[in-house]
Amino acid sequence: MLPKRYVLDSRISTGSTAHFVDAILQLGAARCSAYVCFANVHMVVESQRDPEFRQVLNQATIAAPDGSPVAAAVGWFNTGQRQARIAGMDLLPALLTEAARRQQSVYFYGTTPRVLEAMVARARQELPNLQIVGAYAPPFRPLTPEEDAAETAAINAADPDLLFVALGCPKQENWMAAHRGRIRACMLGVGQAFPVYAGLERRLPQWARRLWLEWAYRLWLEPRRLWRRYLVTNSRFLYLVARRLVALSVGRPTPAIYSE
To answer: What is the helix (H) or strand (E) element at residue 162, kind and residue range?
Structure first.
């Protein structure tokens, strides 16, 4: 699998977009029960606050540097290591395209029926050879054990190579970790990538993303829900990174590469 390097206490996978796409599709082809996280600032800060969530993130087979600050921090903590951002919103269409080429099947789980319907329509129009074996939007409440068992059985019966999950962070990451060993697929927590791929939510142009402005755009779209996550959490991330870099500069050992 892809090598990992520490960002604070989170183990972040490294490599090019092509490396990530190939590694994920290999996991899907092997039908091993694995899961992939797309780590942004919110996720890294949450892992610092919550040891149980840190274990969920660090035990992911792949933890992609989804946020630009997280990708940059790979280099800050590991001299000479340059890492591009590997965003779920970019990797979802790339994975679907390559899955169609390799004749691998996919399943969409999460979000709403409206979003799923638009996603499936786009995928079938643009990728007629893509094998879409299922799409399901679970209720917005905790499932009973019986409901969860039924949904797990339905996913396994559909037998996808890749299972794309959009339940929101940290719910989707906890869900994937809880279902590792129970679902025979590579699970990917891509969250907000669903409505973007469906064409129901716009994304900033590339030049604005290079300036790390995507968080500001999302905050503008959903200020009530996201103000705390972005204003408080982003500030917390910068504080934690600065404190750790100062500690390293006065003689604390540099975190070593981590390999599975």
So the answer is: strand 162-166
